[in-house]
Each structure stands twice: as C-alpha cells, then as structure tokens.
Amino acid sequence: MIKKKILAISGSTRERSTNLSLIYAIKELSKEVFEIEVFNEIAGLPQFNPDHDIDPAPQKIFGFRKLLKEADGVLICTPEYAMGVPGTLKNAIDWTVSSAEFSKKPVALITASSMGEKAHTSLLETLKIIEGNITGDTQLLISFAKTKINSDTVITDKETLEQVKKLIKAFSKLINHE
C-alpha cells in the first residue's frame, strides 16, 4: 500500500504544545498508512491582506499553498484561544480562500484544548465554506487535552486513544474514497 501524504498543521505556535504532541502521536499511530509532514511555519506567514493576494503570492504563502496542493489530506490539530480559533491558524486558512487549496481536500480536524467547543464549531463552519472535505468521523473534540496527551507525544487516556485511532481509520477511508 502506498502511504498517503498528509500535511499536519498545529493551531498552536508553542514549541512543545499539546497539539503538536498530538500530531506526533498521530504520526506514530498512522505510520503504516500516512506519511505526515508537519508544517511548523504558521507563525511566519504574513498577515492576510486581500490586496496582497495576487499572482504571484508572497513567497511564504506560495510555499504553504504548494504543500497543501501536494498533500492527499490535511490534519489540523488546534487549541481554542479566548473561545475562538487561534489567529495564526485562521490567518493561514484565509490565505487559501481565493486559491481554493482546501476545496474537496480531505480534512481531519481535532480541537484539543481545555474546552474547545467554540473554536471547533467556528473552524468547522470555515472549512465548510471553503469546501474542505470533512465528515463527522474525521473530526474530534478533546476537552481537557493536557490531562490526556503528554509532552512525550503519547496519548495517555485510553478513550481518547481509541477515538484518535477511529479518526485515523475514517480519514484513511475518506482519502481513499472507500
């Protein structure tokens, strides 16, 4: 089986964030089916400005869009900040609205935070409007995430581990049109 290429994006800019740990845990759990590339440059993307969303795009945006285009699917793991989507993640997504990299692209969304419901709902609406291909089985809300995922990239909570494994299977099926 040829591994599918996944671009993983953490909504957190912290070096040792819970969401980045979760991405690396998923990378290990899915290594038989996915080749996951972690995009660590979200904080370095310029602030979205429609006046600058022209051809050619700014170099960092061109590179980000290229990674999205080349990926078979996108994994987003994000916290919730002040009951919303982190600004850097929303900024990155805004840069793709006119160029449509998310259109029909399989997406898995995990919101891992203290609570997370507001950011999760908001991000789902954004992904729908830009036509990301996301299903009920390729999204997950992990509340009280810091108690369930450690900094060694291990999911320590059994129920959460099973939910993540189920999401990986569903994401693989979505990508493979099964």
Offer a concise description of the structure:
This protein has helices spanning 18-29, 59-70, 87-94, 117-129, 158-175, and strands at residues 4-10, 34-39, 73-78, 107-113, 139-143. By secondary structure, the chain is an alpha/beta fold. It has one domain (4-175): 3-Layer(aba) Sandwich (Rossmann fold).
Low-confidence stretches: none
**Overall tally of structural domains:** 1
Task: Please tell me the overall pLDDT.
Answer: 96
Rg from Cα:
15 Å
What's the SSE pattern? EHEHEHEHEH
Largest sheet: 5 strands, parallel
At the first level of CATH, the class is: Alpha Beta
Percentage of β-strand residues: 15-25%
The count of strands amounts to 5
Helix content: 25-40%
Helix vs. strand class: alpha/beta
Please tell me the CATH architecture by its name. 3-Layer(aba) Sandwich
Helical run tally:
5
CATH topology: Rossmann fold
Shape: globular
CATH superfamily: Flavodoxin domain
